[in-house]
Amino acid sequence: MAESVMRHWRVCAVAAGLIGLLGATAAQAQLRDPTRPPEQWMQGGDAEPAGGPVLQSVLLSPKRKIAVISGQTVALGERYGEATLVRLTESEAVLRTGSESQTLKLFPSIGKRPASDSRNRHPDKSEMRR
Q: Is this structure's pTM higher than 0.70?
C-alpha cells in the first residue's frame, strides 16, 4: 500500500513538472528579447534610412577614429558608399563626396546655445537672497 501511494505521488510530481515546463515554454514564446536588434536591421540589405545616413556612434582614441554610420563601421579616411569620412569629432562626422560635404550629428536634435544666454544662467547667491 505504501508503495502504491509513493508511486502515485511520483506520477503526480512528474505530471506537475511537465505541466510547469509546458507553461514556461508558452510564456517565453510571448516575451520579446529586449537585446534583439530592431526587425528592420534583421532584414539585411544595404538600404539606407529614408532620411539618409545616420551617425550612431563615435569612437575616438589616440590610435583609432571610428564612426558607426547607419550600422556600418567607418574609420577616418575610409569610404561610406560614394563618400569619404574626412572629419570626426565626439559629436559629428563629415562625409565628402567630390566637392560636397555632409555633416552628420550624433545628437541632431540637441543644439548648443551661448553661455551668455539668459535662459541658461543660474542666479548668483545675492539674487537668491532677495
A: no
- 22-to-9, 13, 16, 19, 60 alpha-carbon distances in Å: 20, 14, 10, 5, 49
CB 81 within 8 A of CB 72: no
Residue 85, φ and ψ in degrees, nearest 5: -75, 110
Contact, 92 vs 111, CB < 8 A? no
Bridge pairing between strands 72-75 and 92-97: unpaired
For residue 105, what is its C-alpha cell?
550629428
pLDDT in tens, 32-51: 777 777 776 666 555 555 67
- Type of residue at 48: E
